[in-house]
Amino acid sequence: MTRRTRTCRFRTSKTRISGTQCFNPAAYMQRRRYHSKASILFGDATRGPCSGVRRTIVALALLVLCATPLGAECTQADVARARSPDGIWEAVNEEFTCDVGLFSTDITTEVHLRSTHKPIRDFNLLGVDTTGNVNERPRLAWTSAHVLRVTVRNISILKVLLRRTEGIWVDLHFDPDDPKARARWLRAHDMPPDQRERP
Length: 199
Known about the structure:
The chain has three helices and ten strands. By secondary structure, the protein is an alpha+beta fold. The chain has one domain. It is globular, with a radius of gyration of 20 Å.
């Protein structure tokens, strides 16, 4: 198992060095948590006989919350691998653990497609917010030399970056496969619907 750190997750570039674009599928959840914390802290704190003390407490709490940048470094580990039948490609689950604020840690898993021969090519296919639950990590399986089956939990924060590349088709499945339940959950969390491509 390899470990390293980096500051950028969910890159859309094809190289591991020059990639600068990032996407964090849990970013909106981070913002919602910060908003919720601020709402709880503020509440009706500006009213009542102790409003001055409460305003001071609120100000100090917000300073602590804002002291940790959202771009904090992440610890990475390869947690699963699956080699294609022809041995040319390897699908890899990369898990990232990132401290994003006071009492808050995000754990996400990226699915990468890597060539097994030099020059090494690396493609970021998708990312899932797993909250550290091993049962919510994407499941990887090759159904042929050109089809990689990726199974994710039906109720999960998912960002798909690539569905086909280098002649490989990413066959995305949900477990359980309940499109109506997923659509309701996405609407309830103000997320766009999935784009269900076909091969």
